[in-house]
Amino acid sequence: MVQKAKILLVDDRPENLLALEAILSALDQTLVRASSGEEALKALLTDDFAVILLDVQMPGMDGFETAAHIKRRERTRDIPIIFLTAINHGPHHTFRGYAAGAVDYISKPFDPWVLRAKVSVFVELYMKNCQLREQAALLRLQLEGGQAESAAGREPAGLLAELSARLAAVEEQAEALSKQLDDDAADAAAVATAAHLERKLTGLRRALDALEPGAGGAPPLPSHS
């Protein structure tokens, strides 16, 4: 059973949070509310999120300050942030949003379909990265088990074929996602994230290929980052 991704919705107005939930409910993911920057930072201490929708104008800690805290933390600095704002003070205000680490900056009222489509891209990238981490962890465990069996004079039957098939499924999905991003002229941040995912997949494939008989040993496995 595939675990759902979590999406963090940050806004001090309950009616805005309710509207976001109505728009994003069709994605069938886990929507987490936060009514302030402080509450958002607290949620980020314990949970992993695919994307954050962050209101700019909030009392106390505003969206820019909240984003700055998020980007300073190693655990959360790579989470995509989409800023939502009801005001538009021109290019300088927009630039401040991107400088704070946002991958997108959307003015209210926004097109619900466009917002849902943007969020879905980052959810899909997050799920692919989760799959890759799981496959890398499985490979490490299987390699340790395989080394133990080889030391005992036994070969891990079917291990490489099984891992290769699982990796191929992730590779196929990542390739389809990258093609979709190219066709849709998606945000540069989403395209860059997809390219990073493909590089990690390539590294994992090379590690598997090197385990084939006569390949001469495996190179280092791709990192979790």
UniProtKB/TrEMBL annotation:
Record key words, sorted: Coiled coil, Phosphoprotein
Q: Which PROSITE patterns match?
A: RESPONSE_REGULATORY
Q: Which residues form the Response regulatory domain?
A: 6-123
Q: Does the keyword Magnesium apply?
A: no
Taxonomically, which superkingdom? Answer: Bacteria
Residues with PTM 4-aspartylphosphate? D55
The coiled-coil regions, if any, are 160-187
Matching PANTHER family: RESPONSE REGULATORY DOMAIN-CONTAINING PROTEIN, STRESS RESPONSE REGULATOR PROTEIN 1
Q: Which protein are we looking at?
A: Response regulator
Origin species: Streptomyces sanyensis
